[in-house]
Amino acid sequence: MAGQGESMMVIEPAVEAFLDQTLVAVISTIDRAGRPRTAPIWFHWEDGAAYMFTARSSLKWRNIQRYPYASLCVDWREPPYRSIIVDGRIEEVERSLYELVLGMALRYFGKEKGAEFAEDYKDQSENVVAFRLVPDHIANYLKE
């Protein structure tokens, strides 16, 4: 049985493989006026959830604090166009911010630039938050 926040969803292998690619996602949150707000974001798919980070002062984090649900669109923008949309609850995570950022930065920037980028996050846990989106629904648009 899954613990609090753990996904009980069975995720298809094709979806897992798609989400393991190095793609920039787009996260949508709901603002104070009830309108959707979207922003590009790095993510790391692990154990059935999307892990991300953002500044605690960012609009997306303030929106999440008011309404802890979001949608994450991960798409391939060349033919054949494919996408996955993950909807679910957002949870702050207790894990090393530096290790999370380092893993993503190495993936998105490569070894040298990624390590340099992550250095800026070593002592930023007061200013930057690590969080995950635990899916309750996944829309699969991988069929060609």
- The H-and-E topology, N to C, reads as HEEEEHEEHHE
Helix-strand makeup class = alpha+beta
Residue fraction in strands: 35-45%
Order of strands across the biggest sheet? Answer: 2-1-5-6-7-4-3
Number of DSSP E strands = 7
The largest β sheet comes out as: 7 strands, antiparallel
Rg, rounded, reads 15 Å
Overall mean confidence score, pLDDT: 93
Helicity range: 25-40%
How many DSSP helices?
4
Structure explained in plain terms:
- There is one protein chain.
- This protein has 144 residues and is of the alpha+beta class.
- It has a domain at 13-95 and 129-141: Pnp Oxidase, Chain A (Roll).
- It is 26% helix and 38% strand.
- It has a seven-stranded antiparallel β-sheet.
- β3 and β4 (49-55) form a beta hairpin.
- The mean pLDDT is 93.
Topology:
Elements: H1 13-19, E1 25-30, E2 36-41, E3 44-46, E4 49-55, H2 59-66, E5 69-76, E6 82-92, H3 97-109, H4 111-119, E7 128-141
Antiparallel strand pairs: 1-2, 1-5, 3-4, 4-7, 5-6, 6-7
What descriptive keywords fit this protein?
single chain; 144 residues; Pnp Oxidase, Chain A; 7-stranded antiparallel sheet; F420H2_bilvrd_red/Heme_oxyg; Pyridox_Oxase_N
Could you write a compact summary of the structure shown?
Helices cover 26% and strands 38% of the residues. With 144 residues, it is of the alpha+beta class. The protein has a domain at 13-95 and 129-141: Pnp Oxidase, Chain A, CATH 2.30.110.
